[in-house]
Amino acid sequence: MNIQKLTERIRDYANHAWRRELLYQDKAKWNKMWASMDVIGDTQLAIDFYAALPEFSSNSGGYLYIYGLLQSLFVQQDACSHINNVITGNKIGWKSDYPTLLNIREIRNMSIGHPGSRGDKSFHHISRISISKDSFEMLTYYSDENSKSELKKISIKKIIDKQNDLVIGILSSIEGYMKSELKNHKKKFEGKKLADSFPSDLHYVFSKLYETGSDSNALQKVHFTILLEAYEKIKDGIIYRYVSLDALSGIKYNNEMLDYIFNRLDRDMIINRIDDDKELYIFVQALEKEWEELEDMTKEIDEEFSDIEFET
Description:
By secondary structure, this protein is mainly alpha-helical. It has eleven helices and three strands; from the N terminus they run ααααααβββααααα.
């Protein structure tokens, strides 16, 4: 598994309608998540570009390449931390959890981030003649007279390889967390199908709504109520599964249409029946059509939530 594949899998989990709607409820988290996902991909392109470079020296782009690489590694770590914070609610502790990545951050800070001063305690610069694609040497001087200056060789290849392995570990952990959360969310609905909320005698219910005549209104009221109560229960079930009807565009549009039709029939057939039976027939017909679409979509939802495992 590589970084690109892992980010694709995380995107798949984040784009699941339930997770996506959860994220979208908090715009700061939403924007942080997707910006950070893009940053991981962008920085990986920079790192891969560096790995494919021919040999170079300080006079042939060396400083630019090394500065760009170290900054890319640093920013990629930050992006991983941001995604982890959005998904799990926890910040990555570089010192306690990833001391190797902390060391890479410190190399960046000392060599190109704040080389002129680390709190006036140490001062650093890259040895120009040491620059190559594979390594460079960093000189360190200290304010403390008892501390000797140091010359440290930095292996760029080791840094890249170590970060690659550890970032894969972080992203794998995030993916596992998201998979587990989705699985647990689906488990809440085991044995509970939206289809169970549909009236079992639906054909009979609609046949009564289609009836006309002076003695039909009482039966229409009874069966209209049966249908409306079932609809509200189904709507609540969808919201419970996906946070909001907005999570599924087809469901949202279907519900908007059903809301409108139910309101019109409630007004014109139940509360104060109009004399135009043809208009009422058309609205009942529209209700039946939209209801059939609702049945089809809830069947798909039930199928999805019966599949506890989510593979990408």
